[in-house]
Design goal:
The chain is α/β, with parallel strands linked by helices. It contains five helices and five strands; from the N terminus they run βαβαβαβαβα. About 35% of the residues lie in helices and about 20% in strands. The longest helix is centred in the N-terminal third of the chain and has 14 residues.
Length: about 140
């Protein structure tokens, strides 16, 4: 047993942000592996395919709301319909460049969303997010 989360997921269309966030997560030393999705459609397809198991599903999801094809709101609308196993513990944090009160209010209407953070996410902020996630580390 280690004190690491097994899988974290990043859903964001910004490739530079993805690289920086993946490095931030890896450098934290608190996550075994990172799944990366570049739009909501790609992520939803993965979750629908893997929903019957919890093995490769991220316990922590960092979600952007401004993406092409399927934005973060559309992702959340589809995500909550997936029949995950009852023992799948996941925490979703919106991580976006939007700081509007409308988006913050909309995020609070989703029970699966645990928090809202404006980019960028520093190493210290990531550790705060992980601590706030309530995830049992392995």
């Amino acid at each position: 047993m280690s004190n690491k989360l097994s899988v974290a997921g990043i859903i964001d269309d910004d490739e530079v942000y993805q690289l920086v966030m993946k490095r931030t997560i890896e450098q934290s030393g608190m996550v075994e592996s990172v799944l990366q999705f570049y739009d909501g459609e790609e992520a939803i397809s993965y979750f629908k395919e893997k929903h019957a198991t919890t093995e490769m599903l991220p316990g922590l999801i960092l979600l952007d709301i401004n993406m092409p094809y399927m934005d973060g709101w559309q992702f959340l609308d589809e995500f909550i319909k997936i029949p995950f196993r009852e023992d799948y513990r996941r925490t979703i944090f919106i991580v976006t460049s939007s700081s509007t009160s409308e988006d913050l209010k909309k995020a609070s209407q989703y029970s699966v969303v645990s928090g809202y953070h404006v980019k960028p996410i520093t190493q210290d902020k990531f550790k705060e997010i992980l601590a706030a996630s309530g995830q049992d580390l392995l």
